[in-house]
Amino acid sequence: MPFDSKVPGVTILGKVTPQQAQEILTPEALLFVATLHRTFNATRKTLLQKRVLRQQQIDQGHLPDFLPETKAIRDDISWRGAIPAPGLADRRVEITGPVDRKMVINALNSGAATFMADFEDSNSPTFDNNLSGLVNMKDAIHQRISYTAPNGKQYNIRKDGKIATLIVRPRGWHLDEKHVLIDGEVTSGSLFDFALYFFHNAKKSVEIGIGPYFYLPKMESHLEARLWNDVFNLAQDYIGMPRGTIRGTCLIETIMAAFEMEEFIYELREHSAGLNCGRWDYIFSVIKKLRQNPKFVLPDRSDVSMTTPFMDAYVRLLIKTCHKRGVHAMGGMAAQIPIKNNEAANKAAMDKVRNDKLREVKAGHDGTWVAHPDLVKLALIVFNEHMPQPNQLHVRREEVQVTAADLLNTTVKGGKITETGIRANVSVALMYMEAWLRGAGCVPIHNLMEDAATAEISRSQLWQWAKHHAKTDNGVTVTAEYLLKVLDEETDKLAKEMGDQRFKASKMTLAKERLSTQITGKDYADFLTSLLYEDILVYDDVKAKI
C-alpha cells in the first residue's frame, strides 16, 4: 500500500520502511519539505535554465570571465564572512564518504576533525539509500548510532567525545527527488535532503556543541548561493533558530564558480564557512563547459595535476579569496586507499598522498580531504607539522594575481592522449556506472576510491576526444567508432574477469548501453547521475511511475 504522507499536496511514490516513516517522513517534517519546495523551487528551476543559456553563450565563443556587475563586491575590502562556528575553527583533516551506517561510524571515529556525510557524488540516490542515510544522520547527531556486521562485529561511536564534527552534503540544485511530489510537481533533491536533515537534527546539533553544517555542491553562479542563503534564513526562522547558526561551505568545483568565489562568500556571509577545492569535479567542469572548443582539449587524466596551470591558478585564487574574507580555504581530495599485499605499491600511493598534503598546507590551505580512515593519520602528521595553529587564515597570499586567462590556461606540458588513458577512462566509467546502478556511489577502482566525479571526467574526455578527432601519441585518430570498439573490448575483459554468472547478475550490460551514448562526440548528458537516475527509481505502486 502506498505511503500516506498525511500532508495535503505531498505524495510519496517510493517504498518506505516503518523505521523511515517513523524517524524521517513524519507529517511535520514533510510539511517543512513542502514549505521549502513551494517557496523556492520555481527560483531553482529558473537558475537551472540560466545555466543552459550560459552554456549556449560559451558554445558560441563567449568564454567565462569575472562579472563586471559584481566588481564592487570584489573591490570592497570591508566585508567579511562569518567567524568560524563551534567545531569548525580547526578543520585540518576532513574525511568524506557515503551515508551508509558502517561508514558513518568509522568516519566519526577516524580522528578526522570533521566528516562530510555525502548524499551527492558518493551516494547512489535510491530512495532507500537516501532515507536510510537520513536515519543514520539522526542517530549520529543524537549519538546513538551503532551497527552490527553480518559477521557479528559491533561498531559504535567512541565514548571519549573525540568524534568528527558532522557536515552534510545534500544533492546539487540540478538533481530531482522523483519519489516525492509536492502539489503534483517533482521536488528538488537538494531541498529534500537539506530539509529532512535540518528539521530532525538542527536543534540537537547545537545542543551537542556544534550546529547544522553543510557542504554546498555543483553551483555555477552566486545567485545559486543566494538561493541557499534564502533557504537557510527561512529554515532557521521556521524552527525558531537564530539566523547565522547554519554554516555552508561552498565547493568550488565548476569553472563558472571559479570566477565568482568572492560573490559566493558574500551571498552567504553570516552563513559562510569558506570554500573548498572540489578538484575532480572542477576538471570535469572545465571539459564539460568548454567541450565544443578545440583549444581546450585535455590530455590523459593522469597528466592533469594540481600543478597544471589552470588548476594551480584556481587553488591560489581560492586561498587568497577565502583569507581575504576571513573564512576557511579547504584543500582537495586524496582518493588513494591503502594497497594490501603490495608494499611497494602502497608506499608509492602513500607518498603521493603525503606530497599532495604537503603542497596544500604550504600553499596556505586550512585543511584537506581524505577518502579513507587509514589516511587520516598521514594527513594529520603533515598538517600538524606545518600548521600547529587551528588554521591559516592569517596567510593572506596578497602576492597572488590570477587573471581570467590563468584560469583558462589548460596547457599541460608534456601531456599526451594515449591508448592506455583511453582504456582507463572507458574501464573506470564502466565500472563506476555499473556500481552506481546497483546502488553503490563510492567504489574502490584501481586502488582509488572513486565517486561520480571520476566517471564524469572519464566520459567527458572520451566525448571531447571523439568530437575533435584528437590524435593519440601513436598517431591514431580518436573517433566514435574507435571508442565504441574499445568499449566492447573493455566490457569483454571485465566479463572474463567476473565470470559468466557474476557478469550476468551485474548491471554491466546496462552500464555499457548508457556509456555508449556518451562517448561519440554527439549526445552529451548534463550529468551522468541525471542520465542514470531513471534506472534506479523504484516506485511503491508501478502505476505511479511519472
UniProtKB/TrEMBL annotation:
Annotated InterPro entries: Malate_synth_C_sf, Malate_synth_sf, Malate_synthA, Malate_synthase_CS, Malate_synthase_TIM, MS_C, MS_N, MS_N_TIM-barrel_dom
EC numbers, comma separated: 2.3.3.9
UniProt-listed Pfam families: MS_C, MS_N, MS_TIM-barrel
The keyword Nucleotide-binding appears for this protein: no
Annotated metabolic or biological route of this protein: Carbohydrate metabolism; glyoxylate cycle; (S)-malate from isocitrate: step 2/2
Active-site residues annotated for this sequence: 169, 451
Any single Gene Ontology cellular-component annotation: peroxisomal matrix
Domain named Malate synthase C-terminal: residues: 416-536
GO biological process, any: glyoxylate cycle
Catalysis: reaction(s): glyoxylate + acetyl-CoA + H2O = (S)-malate + CoA + H(+)
Domain Malate synthase N-terminal: from-to ranges: 18-71
Molecular function as annotated in GO: malate synthase activity
Entry keywords, A to Z: Glyoxylate bypass, Transferase, Tricarboxylic acid cycle
Class of this enzyme: transferase
Every Malate synthase TIM barrel domain range: 165-409
Protein family per UniProt: Belongs to the malate synthase family.
Protein's UniProt name: Malate synthase
Species per Swiss-Prot/TrEMBL record: Linnemannia hyalina
Taxonomic classification: Eukaryota, Fungi, Fungi incertae sedis, Mucoromycota, Mortierellomycotina
